[in-house]
Structures are given as C-alpha cells and as structure tokens.
Amino acid sequence: MLASATLGAGPDPIRTMSPPPPPAHTHRDGTLFEDQFRDGKLDGWNPDKGGVWEVHRGVLRADLPDGKQNRSFLYAGREDWRDYAVDLDVCGIRGVDKGLAVRVLGEQGVGVDLRGPGYQDVVLYRGDHQLGKARALNANGVWQHVRVEARGARYRIWVNGTLLIDRLDSRSDRRAGRIALAAYTGGIGECTVYYDNVVVTALKP
Questions:
Q1: Quick one: pLDDT at residue 17?
Q2: Integer Cα distance of 79 and 154 in angstroms
Q3: 108-115 and 121-126: which strand pairing?
Q4: By three-state DSSP, how is residue 96 classified?
Q5: Which run of H or E residues covers position 84?
Q6: What are the C-alpha distances in Å from 92 to residues 60, 123, 184, 188, 205?
Q7: Which residues are within 8 A (CB) of 173 and not within 5 positions of it... i.e. 6 or more apart?
Q8: pLDDT tens string 79-116
Q9: What is the C-alpha to C-alpha distance for residues 32 and 129, in angstroms, rounded to an integer?
C-alpha cells in the first residue's frame, strides 16, 4: 500500500507553494547593479547549471533536486568590483541554507550562509575557514533582509537591520570580485528558496 500511495502522490505542496509578497524595493545611491525580477528575465545573471533558477511570479526562485550537498550559484557583476555592499531579501521555503557570496573570482568567494530551522544563525566563511558566526532567527516562509558590506579586509553582515557580524579577514588578499546567490541542500537534502530586491552599491574605501 505504501508503494501505491507513493506512486499516486502529487507534487510536494511545500515545494510548489509561493512565498508571501516580498518587501517593497528601497532605492539606494551609488548603485552598481540591481534587479527586482519584475520583467521575468535573468538579464545580467549567469547560472552555473540549468534547471535550477527561474523568475516565478515576479521573484527569483531556486529549486534543487533532493539529495545531500547539492548546490548551485547564480553570478552577476564584475570581478573588478572592490568595496561594495549587497542588500537583498530572501525567503527559504524548504531546507535550511540560503545566502550569497561576495568578491567572487572564478568560482571562489567569501560566503554568507543564513541558516534556518535547526540552526538559526548566520555564518561568514572563506573556503573552509569560518570567519564569523552569530545567532539569527529566520523561519522558513518569511522574508529576511540581508545586507553584506565588503570594505577592505572588513566584512559586516546585518540581518533584518541588526549588525550581527563584523570581522577582519587580514590573512587574505581578496579585495575584489562579483557576487553570487546560492542554493544549497546541505545535510538536510532539500532546498527551495526565493530572492528579491538585489541591490549592489559602491562603498568608499
């Protein structure tokens, strides 16, 4: 009976649910790049693989096949960008991990992982080296606002308006690079996540 029930099951209702309406876009001075995805296109973005990223009802959606440690990145910007801030709104639907990378050269950058149910924190890392971690409540099905500043060797991260991480990465000479949005199943083995209101602004050195 279990096999019959599985074969007759429809789409996962959580996977296919839409997020609540995203927050309103806020204009910022010194903009290098921005996208609210209202035109239904991914102009200026480059995915590392097909079939993961799409504009769905006016917001960016990433959905990965179930399985542990699957990942995909969506790149934008220029590798000569130096000091800048990234603001975005993100809403996880399934899974735990969501976030972005800054100062990406090739496929390597400085990552920010906002982890939801079971973790409730935000982690800053370069490669396998953790630069910082802080408590950050962020339920699935709710929009969260993330701001990341990369200025010189300093990285600062705000979640929903609260500064949570302020760290120097003096051991690295990484001072420039583009941005990437992340979809990652992690050890939970699932990921459906939405992004909106992505804005990159220049910072004074």
A1: 73
A2: 18
A3: antiparallel
A4: coil
A5: strand 84-94
A6: 12, 16, 11, 13, 33
A7: none
A8: 999 999 999 999 999 999 999 999 999 989 999 999 99
A9: 29
Q: Are 135 and 151 in contact (CB under 8 A)?
A: no
18-61 confidence digits (pLDDT tens): 787 888 877 677 899 999 999 999 999 999 999 999 999 999 99
Separation in Å, CA 32 to CA 69, 104, 120, 188: 32, 16, 31, 35
What global pTM score does this model have? 0.89
User: Contact at 8 Å (CB) between 193 and 79?
Assistant: no
pLDDT band with cut points at 50, 70 and 90 for residue 5: very low
Q: Which amino acid is at 141?
A: G
Among 185, 29, 54, 173, which residue's Cα sits nearest to residue 115?
185
